[in-house]
Structures are given as C-alpha cells and as structure tokens.
Amino acid sequence: MYHPKTDVTHKYRYVRTDFIKHLFSTTVVIVVITTLLSLTLHEPVRPAVTIQNIATTKPVLFEQVSVRAMNGQGQIASYGPPYNNGTGSLQDIVQKWVGILHPVNTKVDFVLKPLEMAAHLRPGLSAALARFRQAPASQQLRWENSYLASLNHAHVHHGTVIVPAGSYGPMPVLMTGLLHLGQSGMMTGALDRTKADYTFNSQNSLLFLQGEPLQTIAAHLQLLGTQFGIIHEERVPYPGPWWMTIVTVIYQIPYIANSPAGDALALGSGMILFLILVFAPWLPVINRLPRYLGVHRLIWKQYYSDHPDRGDNPVPEES
Q1: Consecutive H or E run containing 268
Q2: Could you list the mean pLDDT of each consecutive 10-residue stretch along the chain, which spans 319 residues?
Q3: CA distance 192 to 110
Q4: Which helix (H) or strand (E) holds 155?
Q5: Which end of the chain is more exposed for a tag (fewer CB within 10 A), N or C?
Q6: Predicted structure pTM score
Q7: Where are the domains of the chain?
C-alpha cells in the first residue's frame, strides 16, 4: 500500500528547481526533435486532387461527371438531403427530418452557371446555351443521355474530347467549353462564385468531383472502406491514423455494415460509447471493473513483493 509520508518524505529528498526553466527547455527540445523528424521522416502526402487536374489528365471522365450532373445520374444530383430531394444516399428518417439545408441543383450550379460565366470569354457558348435552355426538358434529357452514351466511345485529341457523330444538340459545344474552363483552372472559382465580394463557401467545388473521380483515386491508393480505408497511409506498408480504428470497427459490425443507415448508426454508436466512457465513474458495474479485472495488482505486483508488510501492517500517519 502506498504511504506518502514514508514513501515520499523519507525516501526522497527535496531539491530546489526552476519550473519555468525546465518547461522552456523541454519545449525547445521537443520542437527541435519534431522538426528534424518531420524533415527526414515526413508523411508521404500526395498533392490535392483538383478539378483542373481531372480535366487535364482525364478529360473524358470530367465530361462524364458533368453530363451526369445534368441528367440527374451523378452522386450529388441523386444524393438527397441535405442537398436535394433525391434518394440515392438517403439513410434514415433523421436525414429526411433535417431536410435540405444546403440546396444544390447540379444541372444549374455545376454546369449551366459556370458556362454562363465562360460565355463572357467564349462568345460561341452563348448561342449553344440559349439553344439548350429553349429546348423542352424532355429534349434536353435525350441530348444528355445520348451524349453520355457516346463518351464510352470517345477519344482525346489535343486535350479535347471527340465523340462519334450523333444527335447531341448543343451538348458537344457546351461540354467542350466546360472542359476548357476546367483545364484553365478557373472552374473552381466559377463553382464557388457568389454575389458577395468575398466567399468562404467551397461547397460546390468540393462536391463536383464526388463519385467516380475521387473513388477511383482512393481505390488506387487503397483508401476505400473495403480496403484499409482511413487507417491506411497512401501506398506505404505501415498503418496511418490508428486512432481511427474504433470508427472502422464500428462499420464492420454486420448489422451496421448491411444497414442503409450505416453512417447514422455508426455515429450514434460512437456517441453512446463516448458517453459511457465519460460517465464510467458513476455507472454501476462499469465503475467497478478496475477492481474486478485486477489490473492494478499486476502493476503493483513487484512493489507488493518488495514490501510484504505494507498491506498487513500499514504505517500509521503522523498526527
């Protein structure tokens, strides 16, 4: 048993020290060591995925994403709350109850509005946009679906996507204009542009590549949920953020893994676990686990062996 008056007062001597000096010197040592290690053993982080990069290196994929944003087949176009009324990623009643907090019309916000801005620099786009807008919705959808199917047989020539001849209406002109906007690096600004002088909302530019572009890159780096996911570093044999393991474990529980409301169930389970840990000292049975498990006996085993009389004959405290 630990006795502060005998184990501390009698066994150790007090030495005057400067706490501020020790704190400062320790901080300096940690900063120096951390800086040196970060320079020599830094994490292998790849450059950020940008719209310009996808438009330049994978122009066909860029146009496929754009057309799917128009005909409603894109991941965000059919996502559901909080972006729209779709059901593609609808999980549970809570998502329905929250409703549309950040409305996104992918056809307008991801394609037509950026093209309107690009038309100021490329006058030829104005006529194509006018023709597209004047067409009935059913005709627009036929053009979009027809052009999307043709992209499966497209080839790239000098950075421009060439599709087989067909009845696509103004779609080839629109998609070429949007592709050039993406390749120029200005599409990110066009997607996030607002009437305000300054904008801090990057929602649309972040959502534009959701789906195949990001999933393809994640699969190549073994970062999908079906692979190592978030606890795996990019293309390296050692684990990454191990503290996220508990999150991935929750997703592997069969009931949660097979539920359409997997995210909500995982988040709720994590919150319940967090609350259990917070209130563990006051929860019956759980607050007695340390005594039941007896881990402290293993930790103090050597101490008890060296001081066999501590438990039976404790030293009385001085009055």
Answers
A1: helix 262-278
A2: 57 74 93 90 76 95 96 92 86 81 94 94 91 96 96 94 94 96 94 82 92 87 74 69 79 84 84 92 91 87 77 49
A3: 10
A4: strand 155-157
A5: C
A6: 0.73
A7: 4-42+287-306, 51-214, 221-278
